[in-house]
Structure formats: structure tokens, C-alpha cells
Write a structure and sequence with these properties.
Elements lengths: L2 H18 L72 H4 L15 H9 L7 E6 L2 E6 L3 H17 L4 E4 L4 E4 L2 E3 L3 E5 H10 L2 E2 L3 E8 L5 H13 L4 E6 L4 E8 L2 E9 L4 E3 L5 E3 L5
Parallel strand pairs: 4-7, 8-9
Antiparallel strand pairs: 1-2, 3-6, 4-5, 6-8, 9-10, 10-11, 12-13
């Protein structure tokens, strides 16, 4: 008998001994096969609760509704909790994508060309008045019934007092410098400049004799203090400020780069000045 036949007989003998001991094929000693288990044996052939199966899918096969939270994470939210919703406005403009909003979709400083496109869509004359100050877009309050009445009253007084060669216009865009466009309520300009501005959609500061701002309780420091500084920087000779709420009116002239008040009236008193032309501005409708 050769060596291969002796190994085969040894394997058959081991198999017979295992069968006589009640062991199943392929099972080790001390691990009874199905035949040796009694009916009361606590072990079962059914899969364990955590064994994968048709009724108990593997973790990777579970749907979003089948997942069980292991408790809150370090941020206080369950692992599957997406967290609070965020508005698209919380994202930078480049991540928001286009929302067809010329203001929200704009990145970087504003140029005068950007401003022209914006105002051509009527944005500046909607809920507020848009102005451009050194590349920054500033939107102030829109007109009220009281402010419109005060503007009309002041315009009427200016129209009656203006000498030949001057016109009162407004509200109108006024170019103060590079990427700087303000919109005063009223502007006194050379009559010849009116046709030129119609082509450019804005007046140049060099064509302006006087600028008038009509303010009320809805206006803050931008209209009362900051814009006059920009007018002075552009060297506009005269400034008329009318507050229809207090009421008061004040006239200032440019001296050494700053405005100096030279006439004031309050309450029911009318403002009267002699230069740059004789003018009387009533404080209340007659």
C-alpha cells in the first residue's frame, strides 16, 4: 500500500468516528449538529436580530426611515438630522446663483455704468432712492406725501425767483465724481445744461449753482450731514436744506471748501435770501 492510500484510509476512519459520536460533517468537537439538538434547546436556526436578511437589511441597505439614531452628536443634533434650514441669502453671491436681483447678485464695488443699469430698471424710484457714493450703493427712503408737498412748494418758490438762464429740475441724478452719483430733490442748473444732461442721464457738478434737499423724520445723517459734505467736495456753490417736519429752512454757501450757513428760518417764518438771487421759501402751504 502506497502513502496516498494510507492517507485516504485515515481520513475515512476519522469520518466514521465523528458520525458515531453524533457530529455533523465539518463541525468541530463539542459543537453538536442539528440532529443532536433537543426540542428544548434555546438556540435557534432563525437568524439573529442583527443578522442581515430580507426582514433585517444590512446597515448599508437601510433607507433613511429605517436608520436608528445613536443619540445626539456633539452639536446637539441627531446624526441624521440635517440641522436648521438656511436661507440662500446666508450664502455668498457666487454660491447663491442668480436670483434675477440686480442688487443681491452684484459683487464688488459699483461703477457708474452699473448704477445706470440699475436705475434704468426703475429700482431708484421704487420703494427707495438709490445713490452711488464712491462705489458704494446707498438706498435711502422714498418720497412721502408730506415730502412731496414740501418739494412742490419749494419748487414753486424757486421757479418764481429764478433769473433767465437758470432752471430748476429734480429729483435728478447729479454726477459728483468717479463712481459717485447723488440724487438731490431739486437742483438749480444752467438752462443749456438741461439738454446735455438728457443725453447723459445725469448732470455734471460744474453745471450746478444750487442744490436743495427736502428732509423729514424718515431721513437721517446721510441726507442731513453726509450728502452736504459730498456736495462741498464737488464745490457746489449753494445748498438749501428744508425740513418739512420741524419745520425749518437753512441756506449755506461754500467758503474754503466748507458750507457756512448764512440764513435760517423756523416755524411759520419764511426763509428769505438775497443771493445767489432773491428768494422767499414758505415753510407751510398757504
Amino acid at each position: 500500500m502506497d502513502e496516498a492510500e494510507r492517507e485516504a484510509e485515515g481520513a475515512d476512519a476519522e469520518s466514521d468516528e465523528a458520525a458515531a459520536a453524533g457530529l455533523g460533517p465539518g463541525l468541530g468537537l463539542g459543537n453538536p449538529g442539528p440532529e443532536a439538538r433537543g426540542s428544548d434547546d434555546s438556540r435557534s436556526d432563525d437568524p439573529r436580530p442583527d443578522d442581515p436578511g430580507p426582514d433585517n437589511p444590512a446597515p448599508d441597505d437601510r433607507g433613511p426611515d429605517d436608520r436608528v439614531s445613536d443619540g445626539p452628536g456633539p452639536d446637539g443634533l441627531a446624526p441624521h438630522d440635517p440641522g436648521p434650514e438656511h436661507s440662500a441669502l446666508d450664502l455668498p453671491a457666487r454660491e447663491r446663483g442668480s436670483r434675477d436681483d440686480p442688487v443681491l447678485d452684484h459683487d464688488g464695488p459699483w461703477s457708474e455704468e452699473d448704477y445706470r443699469v440699475l436705475t434704468a430698471k426703475g429700482i431708484a424710484h421704487g420703494d427707495g432712492r438709490a445713490e452711488l457714493i464712491d462705489g458704494a450703493l446707498v438706498v435711502g427712503p422714498g418720497p412721502t406725501r408730506e415730502s412731496e408737498q414740501a418739494v412742490a412748494r419749494t419748487r414753486k418758490a424757486l421757479d418764481a425767483a429764478l433769473p433767465d438762464g437758470l432752471r430748476v429740475v429734480g429729483p435728478v441724478a447729479l454726477r459728483m465724481g468717479t463712481d459717485c452719483v447723488l440724487v438731490p430733490d431739486l437742483v438749480i442748473v444752467r438752462a443749456a445744461a438741461e439738454s446735455e444732461a438728457a443725453q447723459e442721464s445725469a448732470f455734471d457738478a460744474e453745471d450746478v449753482l444750487m442744490v436743495a434737499e427736502i428732509v423729514g423724520p424718515e431721513h437721517g445723517a446721510v441726507d442731513r450731514s453726509f450728502k452736504p459734505q459730498v456736495y462741498a467736495r464737488a464745490r457746489l456753490p449753494y445748498l438749501l436744506l428744508v425740513d418739512h417736519h420741524v419745520p425749518f429752512a437753512a441756506a449755506s454757501m461754500l467758503i474754503s471748501g466748507r458750507y457756512h450757513e448764512y440764513a435760517r428760518a423756523s416755524g411759520a417764518e419764511a426763509l428769505e435770501i438775497e443771493e445767489p438771487f432773491r428768494l422767499r421759501v414758505p415753510q407751510a402751504a398757504r
